[in-house]
Design a protein that fits this description.
Low-confidence stretches: 5-22, 209-213
Largest sheet: 13 strands, antiparallel
Strand content: 35-45%
Number of domains: 2
Oligomer: single chain
Distance between the termini: 12 Å
Number of strands: 13
Shape: globular
């Protein structure tokens, strides 16, 4: 029994010791709404978009688009940045660390004006990248920067900066992200096309330090019981 208490105490000390700087956030969005043909619902999730703080550099955010079928192709994606009243004027955006892709690409920023295929004219997204052409899963890192005197300075980005709904012009929309998918032959496929644009209508935050905080509490309970004994 004494060994168990010592183990729990150690876990608690480690948990609280790391909790202060392991506060990275992750948001996972389910691709569950057909934007390009809303009259034909999906009735299920066909993939996810995950946005996470980069654990090695506070200026970077990692993004993973994962489709449920590796034969489906990611053609483009769209995200939101900050809230709908906050327009930024950074010099540029980069996409780096792209899976199975050499070099980097620019990320287009157009405040509330980017519209995925089939979305219509009811507002838009802030960030987008076309011509992705990746099957199944696509991972990359987002970075924003300013240029002054020929020097590039990167901005401190966080996953929380992307946890916003798109804008419709009169208020928040319903999408956290959108993905244009090609080669689609999944549920409720449209008979005249193999292309589909899917939006994410919900976000589930998963704080990176949650498990450490819980372990810390567990360790303190164990310590209290030991002292009482």
């Amino acid at each position: 029994m004494k060994k168990i208490y010592l183990f729990l105490l150690l876990v608690g000390m480690v948990g609280f010791g790391f909790c202060s700087f392991a506060s990275a956030s992750t948001f996972t969005y389910n691709l569950d709404y057909r934007i390009s043909d809303p009259d034909t619902p999906l009735n299920n999730t066909i993939g996810t978009v995950t946005i996470a703080d980069n654990t090695n550099n506070a200026n970077y955010v990692d993004v993973t688009i994962a489709l449920n079928d590796n034969d489906w192709k990611i053609l483009s994606f769209d995200l939101n940045f900050l809230n709908n009243s906050t327009k930024v004027s950074y010099s540029g955006w980069d996409i780096t660390n792209i899976t199975n892709h050499g070099g980097s690409k620019d990320l287009t920023y157009d405040f509330n004006k980017i519209r995925p295929p089939g979305y219509g004219n009811q507002g838009g997204f802030d960030l987008g990248s076309a011509n992705v052409n990746k099957f199944g899963t696509f991972t990359f890192t987002i970075a924003a920067y300013n240029v002054s005197g020929g020097n590039k300075t990167y901005i401190d980005l966080n996953a929380d900066n992307f946890n916003f709904l798109n804008y419709t012009g009169t208020g928040d929309g319903i999408f956290y992200a959108a993905v244009h998918i090609g080669n689609y032959d999944g549920p409720n496929k449209h008979p005249n096309t193999d292309s589909i644009t899917v939006g994410a209508t919900n976000a589930v935050p998963i704080p990176g330090a949650a498990w450490l905080f819980g372990s810390g509490l567990l360790g303190l309970v164990a310590l209290k019981r030991k002292l009482k004994g």
